[in-house]
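Same chain as my last thread, 446 residues:
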Amino acid sequence: MNPLTILKQLHLSNLFFQALAGVALTFLVGYFVPPVGAFAEVIFFGFVVIFGIDLLLLFSKVEPAAGNRIVPQRLSNGDENTIRLQLSNQLNFTAQAEIIDEIPHQFQIRDFSISTSLPSGIEKEFTYELRPTERGEYDFGDINLFINSRIGFVRRKVSIAASQTVPVYPSFIQMRKFEMYAISNRLTDIGIKKIRRVGHTMEFDQIKEYVRGDDVRSINWKATARANDLMVNQYQDERSQNVINVIDMGRVMKMPFDGLHLLDYAINTSLVISNIALIKDDKAGLVTFSNDDSIVVKPEKKRTHIQRIQEALYNLNTNFMESDYERLVVSLRKHVNQRSLVLLYTNFETFSSMERQLPYLQRIAKDHLLVTIFFENTEMTKLLHEESKTIGQIYTKTIAEKFSFEKKQIVKALNQRGIQTILTPPKELSVNAINKYLELKARGLI
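reply #2:
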């Protein structure tokens, strides 16, 4: 092996320096006590021999270890993603190893390491979780191993080439979870309310023979007379209704909660709602708006349409300008011709900020069923439940109560004008949005 390579990979351990300090101390004592000096020479010789054996053990092979990192093709934003490391020891003895994986800089994890033992010739697998909070491309580096024998004087650094770039997409893990529950009709297990449908839907499906359990009010007497047997009308849920997710890209969506911006909560929920709508045979679409150009994905009901929506959501970013609601009105009139359920994800912190946009919201509500979704400030809610002990805390709590009251006033004002609202903590956004969608569908409002 190249001596330069050995020097690059060679790392002396703390144990080496402790043993060397012990040898030096023995020589120091031997200077004053001659018999100890002879003993110190024996110890030093033994130290050199053991050090040499340790070097031979660790550098006996050019490639002492092999392995790879298994990462999903894409990571899910805001969720725990499992990363797997598969490593094998090529040396002829069981080695102790410290594994340091080069994690993308976005996570800001500076102290990641796994200490383990690697038996000779046996592949071992290690897993850890990563929770990204930003969409985009994440660069993984090499896998670094610091290997040592049982002697422990020397550590050999081994770098396994494993550089790769992985994109982080809106939360498809959350989307699949809700999809699974929706397909199996178990949405109530995760907090979705079971809403009783009022009356019949008006979309006729077929006439069929009456069987026990059918609603007698659905008996078709004319068909019964012709067939000389009881016949009933069968209905199905109204289908192909438009569900449009509208996302505000302005500065109000930049506020962070639990590592994610409000925009990311809105993006993740838009993906979930779009997928649920497609499962329910509705058409899902997407519109974004800010102070400049918008993105429009026209509503369709093909199951593959969810991929187009996901790709559109992947590249969304907020800016620091105030959003232009007039642009939103124009965009909806231009691209959405059919009356639709419009889920508007935005945020109003004060009553006056809502009042400025109210004429545009009312204009949208004339053409569509508008649901305005904005966020409860969970940090402020915590303040409201804390006991105030000082004048400063009383003052802070009073201001928090004022903002909380304004949020309730916004809900009341919008409801009075026929605009549906959802005021929700960011973490409960998906559940509350699905509940509202299913409620409006059950009431026959869309």
